[in-house]
Amino acid sequence: MPAQDRKALLDNLRLELKARIHHYEEHQHRSSGALNKDLDDQALEVQNDEVVARLEEEARLELAQAEHALARIAAQVGDFCEECGKPIAPDRLKALPYTTRCKNCATSNEGESSSNKAF
Ligand SMILES: [Zn+2]
To answer: What's the CA-to-centroid distance between 105 and ligand 1, angstroms?
Structure first.
């Protein structure tokens, strides 16, 4: 797909992720100030905080990935794998606009980073 199209997709993704992170931050800010008399409610709240904290971390990783991909597009190397330098299959770029690795490299590095799980 044209680099401009992919850039537009990533720009949208970046905005969406920033909005999500903002939302998570607000949630955490709000719940940290809450006082619960009931212990069960408190436990539930802590659990929710952990879930939100994890979601926020995932969103931040995805955002970093999207920004990394945008930087590579800006440097005119967005279509190439950052590990082996070979072109990334157009179908792969279409399915995963934020990817910066070809299928081979992404597969061989599976498990290294949680942000690559979907690759
Ligand atoms: Zn590669």
So the answer is: 4
